[in-house]
Amino acid sequence: MDKTKVNIPEKFKDHPIFNERICGTNFGFMAKRGYYLRPETIIQPKIMRENGINWATLNMNFCQKNYFSTDVYLDFEYSSSAFEISEMVKRLHAEGVRVLFKPALTLLDGGWMGLVRFPEKGQLCQINGVRKDYWSDWFASFTEALKYFSDLSERIGVDALILGAEYFGTEGQNQYWENVIKEVRNNYGSPISYEFTCESRKHYDLKWMDTLDFLCYSYYPPAAPRNEGWVDDLVNPTIKDNPHYTVEDMQEYLFPRRKRILSISERFGNKPIAFTEFGVRSAHGCCMEPYNFMWDSPYDGQEQANYMEAAFRTFDDLDPWMGLFWWKWDETQDRPQYKGDPNGDRGFTIQGKPAADVMRKWFLDKKK
C-alpha cells in the first residue's frame, strides 16, 4: 500500500492494519455461548497461523427479537460471554493473529440483519395523535450496545473494531450513525470501521462513513460468466456441467472490478479498503455466484483455490486494498447441502482444502 495515495488518520499511520497485507478469515459467525471455550475451538488460533492467517474477525452475537424490534440485548444462548471473548483474544494474539472484533446483530426471527427498518417520522399517520419515533428508540438501544462493545474492546486489547455489518436498512440514518461513532471513540482508541455491501453504496449517500478510519466491504464478485442455457431454481441450478475455470480465466474476469474498488475508495476520501467478507464455496460452479450458500453442487476444492488465487493476483497491487478476510474459517450452522459428497466438504471453509495452500503461499510471500 502506497500511503501517499490513501487517506490514513495520522495517529494510525503505524498501526499494523495499515502496514501488512491482510491474509485473514472470519471466525465464530453465529457461535453460541461457550463456543470459544470448547477444546476443539481453543486450538484454532494455532491452526490459523499454520495456514497463513494473520488477522481474524472475532464474532460475538447480540440479539434482536425480530426485524422490527427496537431493543437489542445480550442473550444467554446466543451471546458469547465477555470472558470467553477475552480468552480467545489472548489465544489469537499468542499465535500472532491480530483481531478485528465484529459484534454481530442476530435477529431471532431468522431474518437477515439488513432487514431492520422503521417508518420515518413523516410516514406515521398519527390518526389518534400518538407520535412514535422508532429510529430514535432503536438507535438508543443500539448505541448502548456499541458503548459496551467498544469498552470491552479497549479493555481486552482488540486491534480494530467493526461497528456493524450489513445493517442495510439502518444505513441511511446519517445523524444517528455519527452519534454512534462519537460514542465509540469515547471508549476505544484503535481503528474503527463498518462493513457495507454493494447495495449500500447504491442506495445511500453514507456520509457518516466519512468519519471511519478505513472501509470494510462485504464483497463476493463472480469470477466467471453464467454458462449457456443457465437455469437457476435456487437449490439445483444447471452448474454441474459448468466449465472448469483456470486462475487466469478468473483473474481476467475479475480485473474490471479494480476500477470499482478504486472508485469506492475515492468516494470516501481515498480511504483504504478491506474485503471483510470474501469467499466462495468448494463446490463446482459457485464461482459464478460466490455468495450463494444454497446450491447443491459437487465438491470442487480446486475451483475455490483458483478463486482465492485470482483475487490476490487481481487486487494485490491496488493501492487502497488492505487484503481480505476469507468467509469463513469455521462452520457453526447446519448446512446439509455442504455434506454428503465423499470428495469433501462443500462449504466456505478452507481447512484441509487446496485453498489453504494458497493462503499460506500469499502470507509467506508477503513475509519475505
Structure overview:
The structure is a single chain. With 368 residues, this protein is α/β, with parallel strands linked by helices. It has a single domain, classed as Glycosidases (TIM Barrel). Helices cover 31% and strands 14% of the residues. It has an eight-stranded parallel barrel. The protein is globular and about 65 Å long.
Task: Please describe the structure with a list of short key phrases separated by commas or semicolons.
368 residues, alpha/beta, TIM Barrel, eight-stranded parallel β-barrel, 10 helices, 8 strands, 14% strand, globular
Number of helices: 10
Strand content: 5-15%
Average pLDDT across residues? 93
CATH superfamily: Glycosidases
Strand order of the largest sheet: 1-2-3-4-5-6-7-8
The gyration radius over C-alpha positions equals: 20 Å
Q: State the distance separating the first and last CA atoms.
A: 16 Å
Q: Helical percent range?
A: 25-40%
CATH topology assignment: TIM Barrel
Mind telling me which CATH architecture this is? Alpha-Beta Barrel
String of helices and strands: EHHEHEHEHEHEHHEHEH
Shape: globular
Which segments are poorly predicted (pLDDT under 50) over 5 or more consecutive residues?
none
The total tally of domains equals 1
SSE class: alpha/beta
Q: How many extended strands? A: 8
What about the largest sheet? 8 strands, parallel, barrel
CATH class: Alpha Beta
